[in-house]
Amino acid sequence: MYIKRILSVALLINALFYTSACFGQCSAKIQRIEHLFDNLQDYQTLQNQDAEKQIKVIIEGDTSCSYYLQVSSENNQQLRGQYQHIPYFIGNSTSIFNNSSVKNLAISDNTTDLRFVIAKGSIARAGQYQDSVKLVLKSQFHEVVDELDYDLDVSIPTHVALSFLGYNSANTSIDLGELIPQKEYSLLPSLQVAANTDITMTIWSEHNGKLIHELYQSSYAINYSLALTGDYVELNHAMKRRFLFTKQTDFLIPLKIKLAAFSNQAAGQYKDTIRFQVSPQVY
After folding, report:
1. Cα–Cα distance between 175 and 157 in angstroms, integer?
2. What does UniProt give as the signal peptide span (predicted)?
3. Residue 101 — very low, low, confident or very high, per pLDDT cuts 50/70/90?
4. Which of 45, 110, 235, 277 matches a 20 to 30 Å C-alpha distance to 83?
5. pLDDT score of 248 more than 70
6. Which of 76, 81, 108 is nearest to 92 (CA)?
């Protein structure tokens, strides 16, 4: 009986010794990171597909052990910029994970793919964005065997576009029909603006806010004013209007024209050219 107890204790000690030895045998490191694909820099809010960055994490270690990669974001999966934060998702080659704080990715053939995805429709103002992702390599015994900080640096370029709603061309002609003193003409095409930053719109008239007769030129002229979003402005000099970036990056500016009082005008065609230009706001 005494011998059996001694033997049982010896077997227990040996078992503990071998288990501890197994924990100590797993040794590995993150050898390198390969960049596979990146179109985050080209992301625009109005695009119809996701943008993403893909990398491959390659490890080197004891092949008798299995490993997995634990991934966490310093900013809770948000690319932080000066004016806003852009949410993004972390995934692998087969799926995108929910926005939990930690993701565990299996290591197969000493590699695993990692994706950082900005979903289509996300609001993204032009600017610089950063986040830091911690990669923790663990063994099957949940021991940390190596770790690495991977920095995400994304630059969203400025995008500004201007067009007439419903027109493919950058130029369009408007026929006001009969010119009536002090009449307001509202059946004009709207300006369509797409921008991911604050913008300045410059408006100027070729004839300084006058409709000029086709033959007599400035000898017969009709003054008029232009309304943008309901507010009339005089075009006797170049006008500048500032529009601040909002979550609606694609917006419309309705246009209206109102003629001044006039009389004894020569019959014929009157015309003017109004030019619109948008550019990023300079601070």
Report:
1. 38
2. 1-24
3. low
4. 277
5. no
6. 108
Q: Which residue has the tokens 């040794």?
A: 27
**Strand 85-87 to 78-80 pairing:** antiparallel
More confident residue, 22 or 223: 223
- The gap from C-alpha 214 to its chain's centroid, in whole angstroms, comes to 48
For residue 94, the Cα-to-chain-centroid distance in whole angstroms is: 24
Q: In 10 A of CB 40, how many CB atoms?
A: 23
- What are the percentages of helix, strand and coil residues in the chain, rounded to 5? 10, 50, 40
Lowest-pLDDT range of 105-114, 168-177, 219-228: 168-177
- Number of Cα atoms under 13 Å in the Cβ half of residue 49: 5
pLDDT in tens, 139-158: 999 999 999 999 999 999 99
Euclidean distance between CA atoms 230 and 276, whole angstroms: 17
Q: Is the alpha carbon torsion for 122, 79, 40, 101 positive or negative?
A: negative
Q: What percent of the chain has pLDDT over 70?
A: 88
Structure confidence at residue 193 as a pLDDT band (50, 70, 90)? very high
* Stated pTM of the model: 0.77
Q: What is the mean pLDDT of the chain?
A: 87
Buried b (16+ CB within 10 A) or exposed e, 190-202: bbbbbbbbbbebe
3-state secondary structure of 189: coil
Q: What is the DSSP letter of 202?
A: E
Report in angstroms the alpha-carbon separations of 59 from 63, 68, 105.
11, 10, 13
Letter string b/e over residues 139-156, b meaning 16 or more CB atoms within 10 A of that residue's CB: beeeeebbeeebebebeb
